[in-house]
């Protein structure tokens, strides 16, 4: 899942430091979303 997500970011055209910063922030957000989805799923 993470690999596909990163590939999509690379394809989107971001590059250099901007890409790295965006990826770091997005990865944290992505992890939070995944955790919330897992908790909601397990909560059911």
Report a brief summary of the structure.
The protein is an all-alpha fold.
Protein model, in words:
The protein has helices at 2-11, 16-43. It is an all-alpha fold. It starts with a helix and ends with a helix. It is built from 2 helices and no strands. It has one domain. 86% of the residues lie in helices and 0% in strands.
The proportion of residues forming helix, as a percent range, comes to: over 70%
Beta-strand residue fraction: under 5%
- Give the radius of gyration: 13 Å
Task: Compute the average pLDDT.
Answer: 70
Strand and helix order: HH
SS summary, helix count: 2
Low-confidence stretches: none
Count of spatially separate domains: 1
How far the N terminus sits from the C terminus, by CA atoms, comes to 22 Å
Main features:
single chain, 44 residues, mainly alpha, 2 helices, Transposase, plasmid
Layout of secondary structure:
Elements: H1 2-11, H2 16-43
